[in-house]
Specification:
Length: 160
């Protein structure tokens, strides 16, 4: 009789299952976005000082621009020509390629999603869900009563 009751309890307990909620997990991810754009920057260029002289038979002359100065002088039938660069710094527009890197990071988030079923539970299903814990307590009490002598011997042997 005890075996039959135990089998019935196990069969009834197997029919009951807890409510399982599906969880949606969003995984970690890193998205890197690289943007390239060209901006116009100004570079500073330094002009070195250079001096050149030329001797020739000709007339006198003088010339100067933003970057250099030239002077020619006639002396003893020869033309002395001097060309000097003006020491300065020049600003020249230079296109520069700029790379921007954007890091976007998302972390794992677990979300519970309750899914509604099409039909409600029947009376029998509700009764099985409620009776599961009562049956579990009854099986535990029956097991404790059945194995009371070995359990008492085990407890009395154990020294605290």
């Amino acid at each position: 009789m005890r075996k039959i009751i135990s089998i019935i309890c196990v069969v009834l307990a197997a029919g009951c299952s807890p409510r399982v909620l599906p969880t949606t997990t969003v995984k970690d991810s890193v998205r890197v976005e690289v943007r390239e754009r060209i901006i116009h920057d100004t570079a500073t260029v330094e002009i070195p000082v250079e001096v050149e002289r030329v001797v020739t038979r000709d007339t006198a002359s003088s010339l100067e621009n933003t970057y250099a100065r030239s002077t020619a002088v006639v002396s003893g039938g020869f033309l002395w020509h001097t060309l000097e660069t003006i020491p300065q710094t020049i600003k020249a527009p230079v296109p520069v390629k700029v790379t921007d890197t954007l890091w976007r990071e998302s972390k794992a988030v677990e979300r519970e999603k309750i899914i509604e079923v099409e039909k409600p539970l029947t009376w029998g299903q509700k009764a099985r869900l409620r009776a599961f814990w009562w049956l579990l307590a009854a099986v535990a009490a029956l097991g404790g009563w059945t194995f009371r002598k070995p359990l008492l011997r085990l407890l009395l042997k154990t020294k605290i």
